[in-house]
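Encode chain A's predicted structure.
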Amino acid sequence: MEKTFNIQEELKKLPDQPGVYIMHDETDTIIYVGKAKSLTKRVHQYFQKSHDEGVKKRQMVENIDHFEYIVTDSELEALVLECNLIKEHTPKYNTMLRDDKTYPYIKVTVGEDYPRVLFSRDMKKDKCRYFGPYTSVSAVKDTIDLINKIYKLRTCNLKLPRDIGTDRPCLNYHIHQCAGPCQGYISKEEYRERINSALDFLGGNLGLVLKDLEGRMQQASDNLEFEKAMEYRDLINSVKQIAQKQKITNTDGEDKDIIAIANDDTDAVVQVFFVRGGKLIGRDHFHVRVGTEDDVNSILTNFVKQFYSGTPFIPREIMLQDTIDDVEVLEEWLAGKRGTKVSIKVPQKGMKEKLVELAKKNAQLVLSQDKERIKREEGRTIGAVKEIERLLGMSGLSRMEAYDISNFNGFETVGSMIVYEKGKPKRSDYRKFKLRTVTGPDDYGSMYEVLTRRFTHGMQERDEIRDSNLPEEVGSFNRFPDIILMDGGKGQVNICLQVLEELGLRIPVCGMVKDDNHRTRGLYYNNEEIPIDRHSEGFKLITRIQDEAHRFAIEYHRSLRAKTQVRSVLDDIEGIGPARRKALMRRYQSLDKIREASVEDLAQTESMNEKAARQVYEFFHNNGDIPKL
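Encoded structure for chain A:
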């Protein structure tokens, strides 16, 4: 694979801003996610020889092939985004959190006649309003306590107005920290005004409260009441922490795409933020060639049409930085693809508007710093897919599946299925098949079984998802390809077409034809061999797909063969099962050393006893040479 990412050059482009950095290995797998107050300072540290963060981080750095980053407006946002991404991608070198109880919320029970302000670990779809998440539990508790004291709100669990007057007022009323709604001492309307003031406070209107606290702190200091002054200081700090709004997690829990662009006279970068379940979990960016006459409206309109014609998931809401043409028609089209209503909006204020601004900010960074590299990468991926589309006279190619068979003289035949989306491998969708019905070196029969199992399983999953009204992401086989690539010519293509016809499926099938030297020379499609330029990006992509399918099949076959060969040597010994086999290999490292060991020495191995040790000894010494692996 052509190398397009130069780590030392990319380090120079990192901004001195807060954000999250995402480390990838050579297979494009995310291996580490971290947050930084300054991206350039933090990421540089990993590649400085003098900087040591332990064995685990050193191993991680050795496996870094490339990295990306998302700029945020504050360190708090970076912290929350880091948490979301770690939960979404479970990177190998991150310490995993045990549950979702990471950040607290402030909950206002506005659905009650006499609402309360409460601490909450969960954000539910109920009649309450939630603020957060926040990073400091103590700050949240201090703020709730402060709000209750300022506005004299109730903290009890009484059902009001049903329980008014059924019991004596609590201590909070007697120490003037509650207005006594439980006794009817305050009307519902007056209490609601206090709640509205508290909501304004939580919404960011903190000026009056902070001014009052600062005045009290100064007065206590002037009176030499330093402990009380410190208490006010701590309250001020808690309020300021709560005031740090973040937009990386949204309390509505909806699925959204946020789309913004940055453009110059010849190029544009479109940034897409993916919000799932109210949490920003990832992003992607796309390079677009534009002309001087293209404005933001036309670029966004064309992008939305092209992007959602090929993507399998349509969110409930799409937020854009600017208006686009034909909104109602596009909403109707997207709703048809999704199955429920889809809204296209241009936020004008609040957190949504700020999130769009954040996407635009990241797009501008990519445009100014990574434009040339993005061009090269997209030429290798999306550009290569476009070339293949033109060769085959097709459009809308996104998901490609390729298959290969591997065996050794008919032994342990296996099949591989690999998936490329938009010209990039999607390893989470790779699948392995161990053949059940075919024996011997029968590639056609093996391919028939693999394809039949793959698409039969997919059709079953589709039926289950439809009948149970589950989201599409639940299944692993239910997504079908836009084209199937067979590692061979006419024979392999015909096998695939036979399977599809028997199952009633219509999916284009293309063969990758090889010459006498086993090198791809062209494509076989619609009973015609189509020549392909060996120097084109489309040809390079076809070759990568071919090599990846072969590698994945060989790797699986090799692992099965290794297990079987070890089993044929040690598991043939009576009384030696998997546990004892592993213990012997762990202690002696090789079969030669096991053969040289005495009965007494073998008996000292974990899980072994004298009888099992004698069985091993007699097996090797009565059967001559050690069997070869």
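The chain has a mean pLDDT of 81.
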